[in-house]
Amino acid sequence: MTTAAGARPLRIAIVSYYLPSTSKQGIGYQVHELATELARRGHDVTVLSDCPPVEGAVYGHRHVRMTGSLRTFRFALALRRVDLSSFDVLHAWGDDYWLWRRRVPRHVRTLAGSCFEEARTIKGVKEKARMVLLGLSEVLASLVADHTVVISPETRRWYPWVRDVVPCGTDVRRFRSDAGQRSASPVVLFVGYWHGRKRGAELARQFQETVLPKHPDAELWMVSQDVPDDAGPGIHALGRLSDDELALAFQQAWAFCLPSDYEGFGIPYVEAMASGLPVVATPNPGALYVTDGGRTAVVTPLDGIGTALAELLADDARREALAEAALERVQKFTLERVVDRYEALYRGDA
Question: Which InterPro entries does the protein's record reference (predicted)?
Answer without folding.
Answer: Glyco_trans_4-like_N (IPR028098)
